[in-house]
Design a protein that fits this description.
Blueprint: H1 3-12, H2 30-48, H3 58-71, H4 74-79, H5 100-105, H6 128-140, E1 144-145, H7 150-164, E2 170-172, E3 183-186, E4 189-202, E5 216-225, E6 229-231, H8 235-245, E7 246-249, H9 253-263, E8 273-282, H10 287-290, E9 295-301, H11 305-308, E10 323-332, H12 336-346, E11 356-357, E12 363-364, E13 369-371, H13 374-386, E14 392-395, E15 400-403
Antiparallel strand pairs: 1-6, 2-7, 3-4, 3-7, 4-5, 5-6, 8-9, 8-10, 9-13, 11-12, 14-15
Helix pairs in contact: 2-3, 12-13
């Protein structure tokens, strides 16, 4: 048989059609791909009666991105006009709104129009009398020039200086920090809560069958501002304003030490010091130490702290590195080691677990390094002095003090 006869015989005996090869179509052009993309957007619109949105669904998100890409390209917009059966490319340029009339005239969905139930059906809005009462209260609380501001001016300058020199710090505001005699910052303005005239009490019922009493103190304040004005705003209003956009200013370190001496164990000039409780930060160059934020050593010494730490870089308890003194409290007529132990117990959950090797290669595990912001440690010292520490715990994850 010749070759032609052999090939004819092969093709004529192909029961499974394996030799029926269809001609492949040429690759799509860029224009064809663009049209196909836009048709997919059209199909989505028909099926969902809306444009694709920038949502978490990846398929819809892709269509959204493609549509925005087309709209941002005038050439693509022009080439797809004849395929725009749903007017998806008919995007009018947004008008700049300059008045109330502009807002109402640019309301394509009618959400501002008059109806029985809509945007302007107000609920839970004070009536005229309530509004007038609130306005009167607001008027009473407005700032006015402080006639005796000269008595406070130097104090404000001193606080600013302390903040620059890092003797004071700005910390997140909480209502528990709102006390007469403290400084705060609201909208960038330093203010001083001079006094509060507490007046009324409100009582609320808890969710249990028994009454759970909660006391809400309120009253007019004397609040002095660094710009020479003062206000008698309500105590709770000041607290709310600081929660919205405010910071608390920590007490100056020297004052903390003075309070420690004055309020603990009835100390007088005749009493003798028994030691020092200190808070240190590490100046280690070890990456695993440097990357830990709010890492402090809380310890005690029977000799001045600067003398105790002069060889810190040679001692495992100081992580074999120099340290910086953050706070120092001189103790009188007391068991200094016991006071230190109270601090260690309170921050027990935040104790650092790290291996340190001395110059001879011997392994050590320091026990006095804790992860807690410095202002929290200072606050705990105050709570110990006040005898309130038993009512609080330290929450490691949020680095805050919480009531039990």
């Amino acid at each position: 048989m010749d070759k032609k006869s052999i090939l004819d015989d092969i093709f004529s005996n192909d029961p499974f059609g394996l030799l029926n090869v269809k001609a492949t179509s040429p690759s799509k052009t860029e224009d064809q791909r663009l049209v196909q993309t836009f048709e997919e957007v059209n199909q989505f619109y028909v099926q969902n009666n809306r444009e694709p949105q920038q949502v978490n669904d990846i398929n819809e998100r892709v269509l959204y991105s493609r549509l925005q890409g087309i709209r941002n390209n005038s050439e693509k917009m022009e080439s797809l006009k004849k395929y725009d059966v749903n007017n998806l490319l008919d995007v009018t340029e947004s008008k700049e709104l300059e008045s109330i009339d502009d807002i109402f005239s640019s309301d394509p969905f009618g959400i501002l129009g008059a109806s029985d139930e809509g945007l302007f059906d107000f609920k839970n809005v004070p009536n005229k009398e309530e509004m007038e009462e609130r306005m009167a209260t607001d008027f009473v609380a407005r700032r006015k020039p402080c006639k005796n501001f000269s008595e406070y001016e130097e104090i404000f300058k001193s606080v600013h200086k302390d903040l620059v020199n890092k003797k004071r710090k700005l910390i997140p505001f909480k209502e528990t920090l709102l006390k007469p005699g403290n400084f705060y910052v609201n909208n960038g303005i330093l203010l001083y809560l001079a006094s509060v005239d507490f007046e009324g009490r409100e009582w609320s019922r808890g969710e249990s069958e028994n009454y759970r009493i909660r006391e809400f103190k309120d009253g007019r304040t004397k609040t002095i501002f660094e710009n020479g004005t003062e206000s008698n705003m309500l105590f709770r209003s000041l607290g709310k304003a600081l929660i919205m956009n405010g910071k608390a200013v920590t007490e100056e370190n020297e004052n903390l030490k003075k309070n420690f001496i004055e309020h603990f164990s009835g100390i007088t000039d005749e009493d003798k010091p028994t030691g020092f409780v200190y808070v240190l930060s590490s100046l280690s160059n070890d990456p695993k130490i440097k990357e830990i934020q709010h890492l402090y050593k809380i310890g005690y010494s029977t000799i001045p702290v600067h003398e105790r730490i002069k060889n810190a870089e040679k001692e495992p308890t100081y992580l074999m590195a120099p340290v910086k003194v953050e706070s120092e409290y001189e103790t009188y007529n007391m068991n200094t080691q016991k006071f230190e132990q109270l601090l260690h117990n309170f921050f027990g959950s935040a104790c650092l677990n790290v291996d340190v090797y001395d110059s001879k290669g011997k392994r050590h595990i320091p026990q006095e390094w804790f992860i807690a912001p410095i202002h929290i440690i200072d606050r705990v010292v105050d709570l110990i002095l006040q005898g309130e520490i038993v009512n609080y715990i330290y929450h490691l994850q949020s680095e805050t003090i919480r009531k039990k």
